[in-house]
Design brief:
- This protein has about 600 residues and is α+β, with helices and mostly antiparallel strands.
- Helix content is about 60%, strand content about 15%.
- It has 18 helices and 17 strands.
- A hairpin with a 5-residue loop joins strand 6 and strand 7.
- Helix 5 packs across helix 6.
- The longest helix has about 35 residues.
Length: about 600
């Protein structure tokens, strides 16, 4: 009796704990329903204002829904390891560029590791890899090991940086996993601003501080580029007039004598702008090797990130000639904060540097008073302020930002750090909230029908024992949902399938016990002895089957991805709960009924 009292208290305590864990889910649903019933916008605003704190608390602690139920984005990102390898090379001659071009072409249609494709190209040409990588005395085997380690580290770092960005963005229960040698799967439930998420994930966040060269040097470089383009256009026109086949190597606005100046605007003060319609063309043009040779040594041309509007409503981008080697990089940034400038109208991001960065920044600003230093993020110039005095405190500001959301995104990527290599989206799927709601209804309907049919069968076939089994079944589902809510795990559509499977497994354990009890009753034993003996004989079979299921669920969770993990998680929780409900809860119910003379041998059917 004392043992049953303890078990009864344990059951009551666990049930109360489960209800307490699911209470925020009920409150969240209740608030959402009340909000949808309000038709007037003012009433909705007043309701949200009065219940904001309670609604936020309920939403934070409620049962989370996965991507397939709540809606959101599913992306497959590919880390550009080829770009990483190119950066590691210290010698980049024509042969190297040819090798990397072949590797890039083969990587498009191959799942092989990039390092293996690279090694294959070098072996085919019988070229030592030390000609381009690391130390000249290194063997090919040593270089391969180093490159492979860098590639593996890059994937791990990219995954963690993406996770940090997503966490700071505020997505509940994201799924971020590696797939193969260079891909990362990202599932973001509840995301609605898809463009913002794409920018957040794809941005490399390569922050650089670069000196701005004078306008005269920029204008001279543009004149040389214009002459080169004009000469090539003239050569093509001559070749076409003579009937020769010509390959278009560059796209220009027309066949004028000044093809470059048709795509840029030069102001009287010497500032140069790129119209919006030629921005893409100019960006690609300035990346060409033959064009870069016309620039001053250690120089590059970059466009501003923010556009300015002309008198006719057309948008333009500032053009800068920068020193290619950065004075400082974003690795020294320790803190970033999105805020508003002194006017309280223009968003900006303030940054703080570590001790090493602070010392370098003080030296750089002190040596360049009166010159402009550009703050460049992912190849775009956000601002290029004039250094008015030495800055000893290690602070800097990024302005030229259009919105506070963009400033917040910059804060996120700067805090998370720069990706080791660029990433690109190779697959994207969006699940709308309406489709998610349909999945929820279908899942609940299927689980509800399954529960009802099983419950009716148990009552019909096992009578009072079937009622006890149904009580245990309901508590089992309650425990599963409460554990998911309590540990902030997400319920997915495969997770609902796992719950449905758990219903069958819970009943299966009870059927094993009940059949054993019926065998003991048929052998002539009294009810109390038959129940005890039935539980003892069924115990080993139930435990063996459930432990086997737990092991299978654990392996699915460890080696599976996304939906498989959701199924495995609910299966493991449900299996553990079914052990407790089948072996403890139903036994306590039977003991209490037998002690109160509310049960007979006919109660088992």
């Amino acid at each position: 009796m004392k043992n049953n009292r303890f078990k009864s208290l344990l059951i009551v305590a666990l049930t109360a704990l489960a209800l307490w864990s699911l209470w925020p889910t009920y409150k969240d649903y209740s608030y959402s329903r009340q909000l949808t019933q309000l038709t007037a916008a003012e009433d909705s605003l007043t309701f949200v204002r009065e219940n904001r704190e309670a609604m936020e608390t309920a939403a934070e602690k409620s049962l989370k829904l996965g991507l397939d139920l709540k809606g959101g984005m599913y992306l497959v990102l590919e880390v550009d390891l080829i770009d990483l390898i190119e950066e590691r090379a210290w010698n980049k001659d024509a042969t190297f560029r040819e090798i990397m071009a072949d590797v890039r072409n083969k990587a498009v249609d191959s799942n092989a590791q990039v390092i293996e494709l690279l090694v294959s190209e070098f072996q085919k040409r019988t070229i030592r890899m030390s000609r381009y990588f690391y130390e000249v005395r290194d063997s090919d085997e040593e270089i391969i090991v180093k490159l492979r380690k860098e590639a593996e580290d890059a994937i791990v770092r990219a995954k963690e940086i993406i996770r940090n960005r997503v966490d700071q963005y505020g997505v509940a229960e994201p799924v971020i996993q590696t797939q193969g040698a260079r891909r990362i799967i990202v599932a973001l439930p509840g995301v609605s601003d898809e463009d913002r998420v794409r920018r957040l994930l794809r941005g490399t966040a390569k922050l650089e501080f670069k000196l701005v060269r004078d306008n005269e040097s920029l204008l001279e470089a543009l004149e040389r580029i214009n002459r080169l383009l004009a000469d090539k256009e003239a050569a093509k026109e001559t070749a076409k007039a003579s009937g020769e086949d010509v390959t278009d190597e560059e796209v220009t606005a027309d066949k004028a004598n000044n093809p470059l100046y048709e795509n840029i605007v030069v102001m009287e003060n010497g500032r140069v702008y790129a119209p919006d319609y030629s921005r893409e063309f100019l960006t690609g043009l300035f990346e060409r090797e033959d064009i870069q040779k016309l620039l001053p040594k250690d120089s590059e041309i970059r466009l501003s990130a923010r556009s300015v509007e002309g008198n006719d409503g057309e948008t333009f981008y500032d053009m800068y000639l920068l020193k290619k080697t950065p004075e400082l990089t974003g690795g020294v940034i320790t803190e970033a904060k999105a805020t508003f400038g002194a006017s309280a109208l223009q968003p900006e991001v303030t940054m703080r540097m570590n001790s090493d960065g602070t010392a370098k920044w003080a030296r750089i600003t002190g040596a360049n008073i009166g010159r402009r230093i550009a703050i460049v993020l992912d190849g775009a110039v956000y601002s290029a302020p004039v250094v008015e005095s030495k800055i000893p405190g290690g602070s800097s500001v990024i302005n030229g930002i259009d919105s506070i959301e963009e400033a917040q995104d910059l804060e996120i990527v700067l805090k998370a750090g720069a990706l080791p290599a660029p990433v690109r989206v190779i697959e994207e799927r969006t699940v709308g909230p309406t489709l998610g709601a349909d999945y929820i209804r279908s899942g609940i309907l299927s689980a509800g029908w399954g529960l009802c049919i099983v419950a009716l069968f148990m009552i019909t076939y096992y009578r009072k024992a079937g009622v006890a089994a149904d009580i245990a079944l309901v508590l089992n589902i309650l425990f599963v949902l409460s554990v998911l809510a309590g540990f902030s795990a997400a319920l997915t559509l495969p997770g609902i399938a796992g719950i449905v499977l758990t219903i069958g497994m819970t009943v299966d354990a009870n059927v094993l016990i009940f059949e054993r009890v019926r065998e003991e009753i048929a052998a002539g034993k009294n009810l109390r002895l038959a129940v005890d003996t039935g539980y003892n004989k069924a115990f080993s079979a139930i435990v063996d089957s459930q432990i086997t299921t737990l092991g299978a669920g654990f392996l699915l969770y460890i080696y599976g991805i996304g939906p498989i993990q959701g199924f495995a998680l609910t299966l493991m929780i449900g299996t553990a709960a079914s052990l407790f409900t089948a072996l403890v809860i139903t036994k306590v119910i039977f003991d209490l009924l037998i002690e109160g003379n509310h049960m007979t041998v006919k109660s088992f059917g």
